[in-house]
Recover the amino acids of this structure.
């Protein structure tokens, strides 16, 4: 089984500041990694995903994340945030093997609030 | 292209009543997944369905919960005799195929409140 820990439930930042949202996971098997974003009253939208290859993954809206296998982390970063980035961000994993890689396991989410 | 639709967005039921949650996948998607988010928790997988088939229901509570995805119409998550502990947000996702490279697209969720 897998588990995901998002270390910060809320992250307030000022506009144009850099931000890092932290995500650590636990798993006995290799995993795929995902970040989703949920804007108010909308569904979850995929920001980026790591399946294999380069550990630095670039996503939409200027976000990127780095997979660190030794630290079992997949932190999300953006060098300069906008007011429109205010949303809830979810980190998720799925197992590579075992035939159930469609089964996503999510963290509790991090509410990013960008202030003017 | 319309996204994943869920209705109702908010549902209030009294203990012992039935709750029916509906999910219309994106056009061209034949794979549907249901997740539940309890208060202060992350989303948890409940069930995976293809048209007319349940592929994996390992995350579904053994009693009172059922899901279907008929040949025509939306997927339905049904909760019989609801209890207060069923209060949660229920999210539906869909994908074109069931492969690991295929993105799951999520709906806005249904917030169920049991009084």
């Amino acid at each position: 089984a897998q588990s995901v820990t998002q270390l910060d439930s809320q992250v307030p930042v000022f506009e144009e500041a850099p931000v890092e949202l932290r995500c650590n996971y636990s798993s006995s098997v290799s995993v795929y990694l995902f970040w989703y974003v949920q804007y108010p009253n909308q569904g979850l939208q995929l920001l980026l995903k790591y399946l294999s290859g380069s550990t630095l993954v670039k996503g939409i809206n200027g976000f990127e994340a780095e997979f660190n296998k030794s630290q079992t982390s997949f932190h999300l970063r953006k060098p300069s945030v906008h007011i429109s980035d205010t949303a809830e961000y979810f980190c998720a994993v799925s197992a590579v093997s075992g035939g159930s890689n469609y089964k996503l396991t999510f963290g509790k989410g991090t509410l990013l609030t960008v202030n003017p | 292209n319309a996204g994943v639709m869920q209705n109702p967005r908010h549902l209030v039921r009294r203990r012992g009543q039935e709750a029916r949650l509906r999910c219309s996948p994106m056009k061209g998607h034949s794979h549907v997944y249901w997740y539940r988010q309890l208060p202060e928790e992350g989303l948890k997988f409940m069930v995976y369905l293809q048209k007319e088939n349940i592929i994996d229901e390992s995350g579904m509570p053994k009693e009172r919960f059922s899901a279907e995805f008929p040949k025509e119409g939306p997927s339905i998550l049904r909760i019989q005799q609801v209890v207060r502990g069923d209060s949660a947000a229920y999210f539906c996702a869909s994908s074109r195929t069931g492969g690991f490279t295929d993105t799951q697209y999520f709906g806005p969720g249904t917030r169920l409140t049991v009084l």
